[in-house]
Amino acid sequence: MKFPNLLIQWYLQNKRDLPWRNTVKPYFIWLSEIMLQQTRVAQGLPYFLRFTEAFPTVFDLAKASEEDVLKLWQGLGYYSRARNLHKTAQKVAFELNGEFPKTYTELLKLKGIGEYTAAAIASFSYNESVPVVDGNVYRVLSRYFDVETDIASSGAKKEFTQLAAELLPKGQANLFNQAIMEFGALQCTPKNPDCRNCIFNDSCAALQKKKVALLPVKSKKVKVRMRHFNYLIFSDENENTLLQKRTEKGIWQNLYEFPLLETENELIEEELLTLMQNQQFVPNEVLNIHWYNSETTVHKLSHQHLNINFWKIGVKGKLANGINWESAKKMPFPIVIFNFIEKERF
């Protein structure tokens, strides 16, 4: 078939020079695939380089503390990826003698590795004939073949996976899978693709039918939850503060933050002071309180928008579990808190 051959030729001429493409070692390919989930290459590349410098082997990653891993991951988001990455490294290092499974089916058994990541590792490292299906692949296939199936529907993944599998050229799964993903990232982009200079402009069904902007079909919309976070930055006579670890499941699990009051709406100082009087974590007598922000910080996550305010709370005496700022900065934080510390450190 013309499609896979042209695609591979295009890839060999146009692919980006990325470090995980210069190896077939599953450790590096696994790292890159986990990091690039929900993340642009430009954002993920510096993290990949820092991780491979700090943890050049799966044994190094396995032996690291979770806090060290989360600190290095700080700012990349979706922190469950980092926690699963660490657990999987420990399994591979300590139970599998540092050897990653060599088949798609066995790779699926590792924590944090789903169908897409397993297919990527199996095909890129071992050239196993399994298709990868991500957002780029949905887009390329739906446009080229004019597939109107809603990619958010229950049967879409199976349909597109089957189509991609039929296109896989024998013995070239590694090249084809990387080629179709790269083509979606660079050429067949979500908005305003350069169809005039596309290798498929004489055979793409969506282009011929003037449907490029309409495909892929995705009808399901994400419902966004609005939340209001009030972070309390306590400061005692030694300018020490308090931190707490988010241990409950949900966003930022096992990262550190200031004591938090979540409210239904934004507060003024008097309202916050009244609310604090009923909280056990308020350690000492409050001397003063003021709002740090010049305006509320809005931190947007995929399913929720956090309206964040930081409050400086001066307290009498010394905090029993106070921590100095030099020590605090070494902890892994959500990036919105880390940025606040870097900018507003008093």
UniProtKB/TrEMBL annotation:
Quick check: keyword Iron in the entry? yes
What protein name is recorded for this chain? Answer: Adenine DNA glycosylase
- Which cofactors, if any, are listed as required? [4Fe-4S] cluster
Cofactor remark from the record: Binds 1 [4Fe-4S] cluster.
Which part of the chain is the HhH-GPD domain?
35-186
Q: Name one GO molecular function term.
A: purine-specific mismatch base pair DNA N-glycosylase activity
TM ranges are none
Q: What class of enzyme is it?
A: hydrolase
Q: Which gene encodes it?
A: mutY
Q: Which EC numbers characterise this protein's activity in its record? A: 3.2.2.31
